[in-house]
Amino acid sequence: MRHLITAILYDHPLPFWAIPLRGLLWWCSILYGAAVRIRRTGYETGILKSRQFPVEIVSVGNITVGGTGKTPFVIYLAQKYQAEGKTVVTISRGYKAESDTVIVVSDGQNRLKEWKTCGDEPYLIALKTSGIPVLACRHRAKACQFAIEQFNPDVIILDDAFQHWQVARDQDVVLVDAMCPFGNGHLLPRGILREPLSALNRASQIVLTRVSAPAEIHLKVDRPLLHTKHRPVRFRSALETIPLQAVQGLAVVAVSSIGNPQGFHHTLQELGGEIRQTLIFPDHHPYSTADVVRIRAVAQQVHAKAIITTEKDWVRLESLPHTNDFWVLEIELQILNTSE
Prior knowledge:
Blueprint: H1 2-9, H2 19-44, E1 56-61, H3 70-83, E2 88-92, E3 103-106, H4 120-128, E4 134-136, H5 140-151, E5 155-159, E6 171-177, E7 205-209, E8 225-236, E9 241-242, E10 251-256, H6 261-270, E11 274-280, H7 289-301, E12 306-310, H8 311-317, E13 327-335
Parallel strand pairs: 1-5, 1-6, 2-4, 2-5, 6-7, 7-8, 10-11, 10-12, 12-13
Antiparallel strand pairs: 3-4, 8-9, 8-13
Helix pairs in contact: 3-4, 4-8
């Protein structure tokens, strides 16, 4: 099923029996696009209201589904404001959040002990930052009000909020993955676009991520453009820190459940790893002990010397038995240019 969905979204070859699905999903994308335009028009005309707050609001988002590297950029941006002497709060929706309760993932000093309460992304932001409160709530306006009352920030960063118009913002930063910018150019569900490409005109700044990958992209939008890459820092396990060069020529299994596993695989190959098998789980997959048994069995079958995963996956794997020797690839965002 995963391969079929990928083939439809990226216009890869399809089995003969599945070709009519493209036409059906194209009509669905027309209806989806109409709904997006109607909702956006409601905010532009004032029929629907965006709530204003007396602090700087910065939205970080994208116009596609799947991973564009928002979490590393949110971490980078929060630390940048912090280095400038500003107090910062980050707010995430939290994956599959079902409550309007504001969850304090971290107050800047202490954080939750369990990622399942808030989701893996805000938990990872809390792990990678210090002195920066991290909140999770599906009701962003409520979370903004809570942040102001409890932490009095200079800046609030809204994670994955480009299509969340209930909160007015001062800046809209839009991330575009240079490895796969817009898929086949169609809206959901025929393609991966949440909005038409014209929505990029609303951006204050566009950030190209993973530009070290072998891809070129030309945007016909007159906006400041920042080029970035995900720079590998080190490997680590629950037992030790491992230098990057240790993977050179090493047979490995790559395990991930993220929006764009291809970027992860590309990085491992650039570092010289020999990927014997990739195990790709659905995005935000809640790993189980059975999954770990399967992962270890595959690694044994292909004679892999290491099982490597991402930082976001490790949030969901760390508490499970028999994962102490899994390698975790740590990355950081590297700025390749100033905004053009």
